[in-house]
Amino acid sequence: MIRIVLLLLLVLPGCSYIGLGAQGVKNTLPQGAQVGAYKVGNPYKIQGQWYYPQESYTYDETGIASWYGPGFHNQRTANGERFNQRELTAAHRTLQMPSFVRVTNLSNGRSVVLRVNDRGPFAKGRIIDVSEKAAELLDFKRHGVARVRVQVLPEASRQVAQAAREGRAWHGNVPSSTTMASAPVLSPESGAGLASAPRPYELDGQPIPAHTIGSNYYPDPVVTQQVVPGSTALYIQAGSFSKAENAKRLQQDISVIERAFISDKTVNGTVYHRVRLGPFTSVPQADDVLARINRVAPDARIVVE
Question: In terms of domains, do 33 and 143 share one?
């Protein structure tokens, strides 16, 4: 949600956001207006931290999720949609908007599909902010945060991006979760306009149960069960380098404040030297350490394994 209040940066209590827009401007918007423009955006800086938005169809990350709702209900999101705390949407700092992601709670395996249409969260140590309804379905609303895996859905995200770029509404038959089982299956021989009808956005080869508001396609409140590890650990990853000497230098800088270690991982044949701290037993403990090392490691983040 666009949240910088003109000349003053303000941290909103109990929320992961920094204000990016004047409240007076937001409140003059017509009720129910929907825009949903395609947006990636330019690099931006919040609280001394630079963020670099980019279009990605391979994003897959673990970390900590938070949620937002009442204070932002019915306000504009960063790509011009109207935020509804009861819809399955999310805010991400860099992903293109709109896009679709699967968010899985690594503590219980509950998983939902969300439409990314906003920017945030800007609290250190968080990778995604989900709507109030999503937090309820993922079963972490009362806790405030959860250990999650966030995966962009490539094909569905490409489809919705193309539609938004062209400014066209989605006029196909949206497969609602309440009607999918009874919906008729049309064969190519039926001649029922299949060539001209848009295909529903898909997840794992199946239509994403959804509904439309204006021209925008929002996932239905459908929870699937994913296989998750029996237990997870929290780490802070201060940096990842292909050159060992760079990792060693950062490790030495951080170790003046807190003990850090180097963990190597090979990805597509390249060895990355990851500077890490932990494991930690709780999110507050990891948050505390993250805040203390931020001066020497501004790009540090919490990861879940």
Answer: yes
Note whether 79 and 63 are same-domain residues. yes
* pTM of the model as a whole: 0.80
* 120 and 211 share one domain: yes
Residue 281 shares a structural domain with residue 218: no
Residue 185 placed within a domain: no
Q: Please check whether residues 96 and 138 belong to one and the same domain.
A: yes
**Contact between 239 and 299 (Cβ < 8 Å):** yes
Could you tell me which residues come within 8 angstroms of residue 209 by beta carbon, excluding any fewer than 6 positions away?
A: 175, 176, 177, 180, 219, 220, 222
**pLDDT tens over the chain, length 305 residues:** 544 332 222 333 334 443 333 222 233 333 444 557 899 999 999 988 889 999 999 999 999 999 999 889 989 999 999 999 999 999 999 999 999 999 999 999 999 999 999 999 998 899 999 999 999 999 999 999 999 999 999 999 998 888 888 876 554 445 555 443 333 333 333 333 333 345 667 776 778 888 888 778 899 999 999 988 778 999 999 999 999 999 999 999 999 999 999 999 999 999 999 999 999 999 999 999 999 999 999 999 999 99
> Is residue 79 within 8 Å of 68, Cβ to Cβ?
no
Residues 48 and 114 in one domain: yes
CA dist., res. 167 & res. 18, Å (int): 29
Q: Report the distance separating Cα 60 and Cα 111, nearest Å.
A: 14
